[in-house]
Amino acid sequence: MSAGLILLLLLMGAFGGFAAGMLGIGGGMILVPFITMIFTAQGFAPHAIIHMAVATSLGVIMFTSLSSVRAHHQHGAVLWPVAALLAPGILLGAWCGPWIAKQLSSSGQAMLFAVFLTISATQILFGKKAPAPQPVGAVPQTVTHLPSRSAMFGTGMVIGVISGLVGAGGGFLSVPFLMRRGVPIHNAVATSAALGFPIALSGTLSNIYYGWQVPDLPPYALGFVYVPALAVMALASVSMAPFGARAAHRLPVQTLKKIFAVMLYCLAAYMLNKALN
């Protein structure tokens, strides 16, 4: 890779990690469109660009999620019994997501991601403001209102499939689900961070497996995962996520969320154009 490309990937990873730490959103919704732009500019095979962008994004999330969940665990906010109920379905779903994506054309996957970005931006822009975090303590009694084990497996599988399809960490689905079941916001976010690793691990391995025999992939691609981009972005993203978390306490986050939502709409328009051309 050229020095200019390495610098660009570093900046992109840093921005994704900072935004994830500050706004509590997964880096995938930012990374996939920008990775798509870079891979397009690099002249990668058009039929593989979106698949590679999603796969590489999941690989980055695999590392950033470890950094995030470590911080949440230190504060005692992760509900590990709840994560354990969702994880089996998530692992299976995240493996199936890339297989489903492989059946789609590059245009179809770009269209899917444009819809995902639009929904995410609308949720950020018009969603209800989350309640203030509560003091971290014992597992709340409302967690007993969670569905049965089989229903939690099914829920985890849905979260995994969609996350594997779009290269995201799943927080856009798992956090609202847990909050509707009475889990306090700080526990829901922390538990969602813990679920990001099995999503990314299973999705990354699946993308390696299903992309292994795909023709015309660039050198240093491991299946659909482009290893050089993954390494550079993961380093920057892991380094910047803690700074984003600190900035959340000092900057006007609600205003920044509005700006970020507008940016997501612009990225959705880019992905839609990619799908139609």
TrEMBL record:
Q: Where are the transmembrane segments?
A: 6-32, 44-66, 78-101, 108-126, 151-175, 187-212, 224-243, 255-272
What does the UniProt keyword field contain? Cell membrane, Membrane, Transmembrane, Transmembrane helix
Query: Is Cell membrane set as a keyword in this record?
Result: yes
Residues making up the signal peptide according to the UniProt record: none
Record's subcellular location: Cell membrane; Membrane
Topology in the lipid bilayer: Multi-pass membrane protein
The molecule here is called: Probable membrane transporter protein
